[in-house]
Write a structure and sequence with these properties.
By secondary structure, the chain is mainly beta. The chain has a domain of about 120 residues: Jelly Rolls, CATH 2.60.120. The chain has one helix and six strands; from the N terminus they run E-E-H-E-E-E-E. Strands 1, 2, 3, 4, 5 and 6 form a six-stranded antiparallel β-sheet that branches. A hairpin with a 4-residue loop joins strand 3 and strand 4. It starts with about 110 loop residues before the first strand and ends with a strand.
Length: about 210
């Protein structure tokens, strides 16, 4: 028996009353932000021919065919299969997210490396850090190095998050809210949950080369 083996300038989105503060100074990284998951073959009968030299008379009944019994086969105790990966279910919090802000425009002439989004959760007191190199790798691509790197992001959350643009030498607090956008070059983006409940969020992003 054969067994088949199945086998993401300060661009401010409308935050409403939820926006508590934002930074008026422009980070050196030019970041701008607004804030708010066939059975075994059976042998066919064979007829045993008469031995050489034996005369078979016409009136002599033909010898009975000799049947060869099919070899008994015992199926394996356990069939081996490869499970197909199941699709990732949409987190339940997705229905409570506000509309996603539009991504900032890329510089003229920029070539898109990866354009994607990701859903995640942030526990109370936790910070999620996003870097272009990591996001590009998750999308099966390689982010360009500075100064050719440019990436833009937008996010939305079930509860307010604090946004921060992070460079090699400094950090810039961008405000607090349920949604926002960012236009960055070589900077990274941090989203922090300073509340008391776990926050569900989505980050959309485009990474490009210029």
């Amino acid at each position: 028996m054969r067994i088949a083996i199945v086998l993401v300038t300060l661009s401010v989105a409308a935050c409403g009353s939820e926006t508590e503060r934002f930074v008026s100074s422009t980070p050196t990284a030019a970041a701008t932000v607004a804030l708010t998951a066939a059975p075994a073959g059976t042998a066919t009968p064979t007829r045993t021919a008469a031995s050489a030299g034996t005369v078979v008379r016409p009136d002599t009944p033909a010898p009975s065919p000799t049947r060869t019994a099919a070899a008994a086969t015992t199926p394996p105790a356990t069939a081996t299969t490869t499970a197909r990966p199941s699709a990732t279910p949409t987190p339940s919090f997705a229905a409570s997210l506000p509309p996603m802000p539009a991504l900032p425009s890329l510089p003229s002439g920029a070539s898109v490396v990866v354009n994607a989004s990701t859903l995640f959760t942030i526990a109370p007191g936790e910070t999620r850090r996003f870097a272009a190199a990591d996001l590009a790798r998750d999308g099966g691509a390689t982010a360009p190095s500075c100064p050719g790197l440019v990436w833009v992001a937008a996010w939305r959350a079930t509860d307010p998050l604090v946004g921060t643009v992070r460079t090699d030498s400094s950090r810039f607090d961008l405000g607090r809210g349920r949604w926002g956008t960012a236009d960055m070059s070589c900077a990274g983006l941090d989203l922090r949950n300073d509340g008391s409940v776990t926050v569900g969020a989505e980050l959309a992003y485009t990474i490009a080369s210029r």
